[in-house]
UniProtKB/TrEMBL annotation:
It comes from Enhydrobacter aerosaccus. This is Uncharacterized membrane protein. The lineage of its organism: Bacteria, Pseudomonadati, Pseudomonadota, Alphaproteobacteria, Hyphomicrobiales. Residues 5-298 form the Urate oxidase N-terminal domain. Pfam families: Urate_ox_N (PF06181). Keywords: Membrane, Transmembrane, Transmembrane helix.
Length: 396
């Protein structure tokens, strides 16, 4: 059986699973943030006596619901207590498997770019894993340090670390590989927050009640801090999950700056939603996020095509370049190892197909230079220049 066919189906099944469990995790996370920020004093005075600190009423799917939150814990634990953890764990596991399939097994295509840094496959994988583990260690150390007691200082330090990580990754890997590792690093932090802090804290609260002790409130406070961090990381992570579709961003000269800017935009939008839940939404926060997104778009505007000068170039002059450098992947039946089908369904076998994709070819092969990925087919600068002259002369 063709290995590329197997990899394609592993990719499909794992990506689908990752999307399903990821939606479940993000949905639960967003719901509980919303729930926490909509609690009001209980309507029944007897509930306050029982230790209930807040409640929220809702209508959905043709029925009424009420959710109540205890200030610390109920006097007696119920026979069944639902835990929200498997969504996070399965998202982490499926995401890591997907990373292995696409970026580690296919490192020469998706992760390594010799023009950025000439890495061997083992070196690239080791660096990627180091960032995933190191990101969590740095983050957790900062949260547990004295800086963790001041949310403003902690936030500033975490932001500086994210800037460093974005810069470093974009100077080690292909832009596509750098973006996904930045998001994976944040995703690992989010999942390990659940595994090492939030769930253990909840277990301690339950254990204290079972042993008749008064639960230590610091566990709940620490868990809530990490939950808040997770909700602000979510939108930047979601962006990196789809970033491989946007070569104009990850292939840009300032790709690490664009990554930081769009992550800030996502975090600001999420901040506004959280404020909105609380009833004190500041329109300036949302405006700041949208302005940051606009500035990212402006900074990523395509640069002029490379043009070494000379007269117009005919299609017949660049067809051999396309055939040798692009068609191995972009063919009805790709000959490049690891490709079972042409990426995004783009086929460049005929003159008409090349003309119809002229703008795309120029953008990805000349402007951003993200194609061929990792320069697998060894396109030269002279050949890129010839494509630019063809495009600038009307792509005829």
């Amino acid at each position: 059986m063709d290995a590329s066919f197997v990899i394609e189906w592993l990719n499909l099944a794992t990506r689908w699973a990752h999307m399903i469990v990821g939606i479940a995790w993000v949905g639960a996370s967003f719901y509980f943030i919303w729930l926490d920020n909509h609690l009001h004093a209980p309507l029944d005075p007897a509930d306050a006596v029982k230790g209930i600190g807040g409640e929220v009423w809702a209508v959905h799917g043709g029925g009424f619901y009420t959710a109540k939150k205890f200030k610390l814990a109920p006097e007696k634990l119920p026979p069944e207590l639902h835990w929200f953890k498997w969504e996070a764990y399965t998202t982490l596991i499926s995401g890591f498997l997907l990373l292995c399939i696409i970026y580690y097994y296919g490192a020469q295509v998706a992760l390594i770019d010799p023009s950025v840094m000439a890495l061997s496959q083992p070196e690239a994988i080791a660096i990627g894993l180091a960032f995933l583990a190191g990101g969590w260690l740095v983050y957790d150390l900062l949260c547990r340090s004295a800086f963790g007691e001041d949310d403003l200082i902690l936030g500033g330090l975490l932001f500086l670390y994210c800037i460093f990580a974005a810069w470093a990754l974009c100077h080690l890997f292909s832009g596509r590989g750098a973006y996904i590792h930045f998001g994976a690093m944040l995703g690992v932090i989010m999942a390990l927050n659940v595994f090492f802090v939030i769930i253990p804290g909840q277990r301690e609260l339950v254990k204290a009640k079972e042993e008749g002790r008064t639960p230590d409130p610091r566990f709940g406070l620490r868990g809530r801090q990490r939950s808040v961090h997770n909700t602000y990381f979510t939108l930047p992570v979601l962006f990196t999950m789809i970033s491989n579709h946007y070569g104009g961003l990850y292939g840009h000269k300032w790709n690490w700056v664009l990554l930081v800017m769009i992550s800030v935009a996502g975090a600001l939008v999420r901040v506004w939603f959280v404020q909105r839940h609380k009833g004190n939404a500041n329109p300036l926060v949302l405006a700041s996020g949208l302005v940051m997104l606009l500035l990212t778009a402006i900074l990523s505007l395509p640069r002029p095509s490379i043009d070494a000068g000379g007269g117009p170039v005919a299609l017949s002059e660049i067809q051999p370049i396309i055939k040798e450098r692009c068609t191995p992947c972009h063919a009805t039946r790709p000959t490049q190892e690891g490709f079972a089908a042409p990426p995004k369904g783009v086929v460049l076998e005929t003159a008409a197909e090349i003309r119809n994709r002229a703008e795309t070819i120029n953008q990805f092969a000349v402007v951003s230079k993200v194609m061929p990925p990792g320069n697998l087919t060894n396109i030269t600068e002279g050949e890129r220049s010839l494509i630019a002259r063809w495009f600038n002369s009307g792509a005829q």
